[in-house]
């Protein structure tokens, strides 16, 4: 009941809205006055929207059949217009191919009429075949390409190519005629997406592809031209909805086309193969005729004239010997196509084997024109093969598989005599792989953990690349090894950039930086197993960053020492507990101060100032971490930094001795000075010599001097 009332309400609302005197403004005003609130207006709006949607669906359903019939009629009309256009073109070609001659007598008129009737019948047959894509040449064609049949073929080609913009240069080739043509749809090779509609024109020596002009029916625009001797045809297996397709391979390019149906696809494949076979046979005959020796007619006059025998026999012998190169063997005739197939199937080894076989056969043989022509064809395939191998080694390809994945392409390039290019491409490929591996490495929170991973990834890749390089380029020009060393230095620069950005730019502590550099050195030394020492390179690249780190940490120690000196009260240390005292003894022992016991007093007292003890621990810690970073280029930097740090403490003690008036404090200051001169300085000097391998003259001078800096005794101003 409610549904019936709703339907009646909707019908009444529809009649009201569709009435001729309906006024929207008045209707909305009345509706607003009658509604109880916002909800009523929203419900009424929904009813009107539902009514509008229903009307739209009803109109579509009512006109749907008419839409289908109209589209079908348009399709029929387009097909008939296309057929009519082809029929007119064929009739025009047939009329142009009939040779003009004076009218014969009455008796011959019947024959002319019969000829005209036969021509009309041939035109009808041509139309029927033209719908399938054939354009047979009218008239008979002679072997040498002369006669009216050849003229008819040329006219047919001219008439058809007048519909293709930008291909007038094709008509300059003598003996060229149309074999087959038809509509095709081109698909994208990787994702099988439809690209465009094209029209293919198969000539006796090439294939022309033209695209449709959407606003000019029956007209095309030139797209590409492919010689048949460089073209490989591959049948694509049907995989619904992708069917009736075939692929054309023109390396380094390939294109996929779809025919209208399976019959037309089969005709395309058959005609392409037959035309390629005919072209190959024609060129083989031309080579045989060019390579054949001269006939007896040329020899007879030489033998019949005894006076010219000596003059003509000597030059004639090398002339016959120069042309005596047998190129009629089947494997030589099929060599260009076999190379195309090998390249298409990525059988690079097979292609290079064929080239080696040909070079071995033609070795020490003359080079008459047929051989030069064959060489030109083979050189074009070598160029295509080289481009494919170069693409295999390009960084755009997948970098997975490690260095061994490049061995196949590198080895074939070396066999082709392009060792330098193979070396360059191999190293460029590996540089891209190393860069990608470093970039994909996730930055961890702990710097040392990230450096461990970075060193493992980089040096493992470098080691694998070096071993693969030695395997691939063994026995080649030694210049390749120089190129590898240059590449290794460049790769090391890439590694140091990532290393420094994480270690030095982030202002890590000197101890962390020292551990990271130590890890990098250890990994670098592993390359010595294969005779590659890059330690000096990593030192040269890191020296600037390490100098900056040493200078920065030196300034931190100096500032901390000055701050403690400004608050110095010259009092003994009270560690409060035996445990704290024992810990301090262990720390000083770790710093190399073995006689620290003599500076400890009763209970937990230490007869040294807190400032001097803290300075000793900080200075020895700096020295230990700096020695981990040490290499010869940093000798003076480290030594000067140590001297600057020690001078700050010694100058403060010297100044305090001259300024202090209290005898007890003065004695305590002398005890601290004695500790610095007689204990700390010898320990620093000894540890520096152990770490560097040679003594430091500057440190010896500091220890031997009774006072490091003599200032005005009456001055009470610190020089620090």
TrEMBL record:
Similarity section: Belongs to the EXO84 family.
Matches recorded under CDD domains: PH_RalBD_exo84 (cd01226)
Source superkingdom: Eukaryota
GO cellular component terms given for this protein: exocyst; growth cone; perinuclear region of cytoplasm
GO biological process: exocytosis; Golgi to plasma membrane transport; protein transport
Chain positions covered by the region annotation Disordered: 133-154, 279-323
Regions annotated as coiled coil: none
Primary location class: other
SUPFAM superfamilies: Cullin repeat-like, PH domain-like
Assembly and oligomerization: The exocyst complex is composed of EXOC1, EXOC2, EXOC3, EXOC4, EXOC5, EXOC6, EXOC7 and EXOC8. Interacts (via PH domain) with GTP-bound RALA and RALB. Interacts with SH3BP1; required for the localization of both SH3BP1 and the exocyst to the leading edge of migrating cells.
Compositional bias (Acidic residues): 307-323
Organism annotation: Tupaia chinensis
Every PH domain range: 177-277
SMART domains from the UniProt entry: PH
Pfam families, A to Z: Exo84_C (PF16528), VPS51_Exo84_N (PF08700)
Compositional bias (Basic and acidic residues): 279-288
Role summary: Component of the exocyst complex involved in the docking of exocytic vesicles with fusion sites on the plasma membrane.
Official protein name in the record: Exocyst complex component 8
Compartments (UniProt record): Cell projection, Growth cone; Cytoplasm, Perinuclear region
Keywords: Cell projection, Cytoplasm, Exocytosis, Protein transport, Transport
